[in-house]
TrEMBL record:
Keywords: Chaperone, Cytoplasm, Stress response. It is found in: Cytoplasm. Its main location: cytoplasm. This is Protein GrpE. InterPro entries: GrpE, GrpE_CC, GrpE_head. It comes from Eggerthella sinensis. GO terms for biological process: protein folding. GO terms for cellular component: cytoplasm. One of its GO terms (molecular function) is adenyl-nucleotide exchange factor activity. Residues 42-54 have a biased composition (Acidic residues).
Amino acid sequence: MAQPNQPTPERAAQGAGKSIPIEETRSAAEEAQPQGQPEEGVASDEPIEAEIIEDAGPSADEQVAQAKAEMQEWQDKYMRLHAEWDTYRRRTTEQREVEKARATEKLVTSLLPVIDDFERTIDYATKNGEGGLFDGVKAVHAKLVDVLKKDGVEVIDPTGEAFDALEAQAVATIDDASVPDETVSEVYQRGYKMGTKVLRPAMVTVTSGGPKREKPQEDAGKQ
């Protein structure tokens, strides 16, 4: 049986009493690494200071500009609200005036037949010599007309004037060459108006056969 190789006494004697010194060597990478800095990938016990950038917020000029913008916005809202309020107030006032005028017109229109009766009574008393009746009825008639005039009622009585189709209604024509054509000869029933609105046109007779009436200068200039 083969025996394992064993060192011969000579080899053992040569190696006895000798020690191989182990020198502490550093690699080139370790020497290149600066002192005080940890190697890459190696944790360090020293705290690492992180650079924190704080948000300083808007500058003073930006804050002033923002405040001015907000002030302008509120001012615009106030102006719009003020304008809307003025418009509402004006429309409300106009509506009240229109309603008041309509109510007055309705009342006056209802009273016109009463005034007509007064005028017929006055005419009858005048023609039949009823002096006492004439004076009393005439006084009442004048008082009633004055009350209506205070409320803006105007009497339309165009006797002797040029015929105006907007304020009078011709019920008959008569030949009369002594006056210009289309002159109101007689008023059968007086008309009434409030402002520019005619409540009732006057009923009149109009002349014909006379000379043509000269047109006003304003109308002549337009042609």
